[in-house]
Design brief:
alpha+beta, 4 helices, elongated
Length: 265
């Protein structure tokens, strides 16, 4: 009986751990970034409708063969962190993807066939994923030094984590639009704006009031009896002090000139 309860408790813990691991794997999604110059696209010679050009090759055994020129995608900065960025509008078709192995740094090349469109490109420490609206093209980097390889897989949909993230964003947007339809919400927002404007106006009024009070105190002080006479005496004292300083400087200069003349004689 004790063994039964022991195995039951162990099984519950294992199941809970599995649920936590699956939840983390499902909800994990790379953060969105601008992705400047992450992907460089080199287009081959194109035809009139901007589709990849075609080379006719004569095979001695099979005869003439139509070879479609591939586009080259260079992921210059992979791997530099988990991220997602909006890729450019791609013409699709045969494509050679060039990127460095995230573990060894060796540059690898993979030949894939991409759909047309503007996919979101996702980086993580194991894969490069072209995410379209209805499918994904995943490049998985495997192996270690001297055994690196790239494996390509096609998967349906955008991925559960991205779908859940988009659904959450849509729910937040709909909730915001729904709440804005009610007069109470608009009234509260208008009241908040009015309060902010009132606070700014009060701060400006307080500043003007303080400035006005200081100016009035200064004017009142100047109109007190005897203040103007004291101010006049103060100005005269400053003038006399300046005149006395100039006089002393002139006397010192005269004494130095007299001593200089005696030395010459």
């Amino acid at each position: 009986m004790k063994r039964f309860w022991h195995w039951r408790a162990w099984g519950i813990r294992a199941f809970a751990g599995l649920l936590l691991w699956c939840g983390a794997a499902v909800t994990a999604a790379e953060p969105k970034v601008a992705g400047f110059d992450e992907l460089v696209v080199y287009k081959p010679g194109t035809m009139d409708r901007d589709i990849p050009g075609i080379d006719l090759v004569c095979d001695p055994e099979c005869g003439w063969q139509a070879d479609i020129q591939p586009t080259v995608h260079v992921h210059r900065y992979y791997y530099n962190g988990d991220k997602e960025f909006q890729g450019p509008l791609l013409q699709g078709g045969p494509t050679i993807v060039s990127a460095c192995h995230p573990k060894t740094g060796k540059r690898l090349y993979a030949q894939i066939n991409l759909p047309s469109g503007a996919p979101v490109i996702a980086y993580n420490e194991h894969t490069i994923t072209y995410v379209y609206s209805d499918r994904r093209v995943v490049l998985t980097f495997k192996g270690k030094e001297c055994g690196e390889e790239v494996v390509m897989t096609y998967k349906p949909g955008k991925g559960l984590s991205r779908v859940q993230r988009d659904q959450r964003a849509q729910r937040v947007k709909k909730h915001q639009q729904f709440s804005d339809r009610f007069p109470l919400t608009r009234t509260v927002k208008d009241a908040a704006k009015s309060v902010g404007t009132t606070v700014k106006g009060a701060a400006g009024t307080a500043t003007e009031a303080a400035s006005t009070a200081v100016t009035r105190a200064k004017d009142t002080f100047n109109t007190l009896p005897g203040i103007q006479q004291l101010q006049g005496l103060g100005k005269e004292a400053e003038s006399r002090a300046n005149t006395e300083s100039l006089k002393q400087a002139a006397e010192k200069a005269t004494d130095k000139a007299t001593e200089f003349e005696k030395t010459i004689r």
